[in-house]
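# nightly structure sweep
# worker-07 picked up a monomer target from the shared queue
# config: single-sequence mode, recycle default, output format = structure tokens
# input follows
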Amino acid sequence: MKLTLSIPRTRPAHLANIPAPEGCELPLLQLTGADQTLIAERDPSLPVYHVNLPALEGEAEMDFEVSELDSADSATGIATSDADGKLDIEVAGSPFLTFHHTTNYPKPVINPILSPNGANMLREPMEAWGEGEHPWQRGLTLMQGAINGVDCWNERPDHPGFGHTTQDDISISHNPLSLLIESDNTWYEGDRPLMTDSRSYRLFGSSRNAVVLDITHTLKASHGAVTIGDTKEGGFLCIRVNPSMNANAEGHMGNAYGATDERGCWSLPSHWMDYYGPVGDETVGFAIFDNPQNFRYPTTWHVRGYGLFAPNCWMFKPDHHLPEGESLTFRWRVTVHTGDTGQADIANRFLDYVDGPRVEWE
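# output follows
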């Protein structure tokens, strides 16, 4: 099999998505070119291969001989340690994030996410069920405020009308380009299950200047029909940044249309948003890309100057009804970057996510 890639625009060296050839579900492909050999890793939920391409000029072409790759070493630079319900992950030789998946919190949560110099880019999590300013915004979470009328965003222990999420299962796999965390979860009001979900966090090996985390979240009406209500409280994806990054302090927010403040971004649609600011002596940020296949793409945003950052396609929209036995899948790409929006090349990275190299398979 042969592959020709045509590059529609000048791009730096970073991760690219290429459509899989029809009927090809091989997990790994080897791409052998004139002066380089690359590994393409298939996405577990989409007919797409991921590959790290070099910097290329617009209108460039690359030709490859393609063959099946039976196995390859796991991604260099990604290491994990899992103990006591905490999965610690290193990227490029330094600590990067911790995924908490115990019952210590009312929902699974990622915190911290560390800058290259080791500073937490997220607000430090408050005590579970504690008081304070939005304590349920614990870092990077998946939550929503109106599931069958139950608030699964705010946290009220043992109060009717408030929910929590419990992880039922988790698996971790190391791949040539990525680390994949997959989990199954149940959403409850008290002891009553509301729905289930499957979620995956796919972290790609890279430099610490721009780490890519792909999140897939599939909602399942496993315990009867599910109504997802009109609410600003949710995303499902939610990030709460370090207070030093807050846009009402020294930080900045910005969307794909050039808006740079809460008035221009909150509740309005955009294909992507970036939130960056100072942490210690570094400028760092999070960019979230909405996937074109997502429900109500491009999403509206629940983004605040005080540091909340969440794609939310539910606010000021009709309730969405998911019949029993059906599911709904969301995908987002989170790029954890150094520098500001321009320095991190966020606009071009988004274009590579949704409109990558042109592909011709033979």
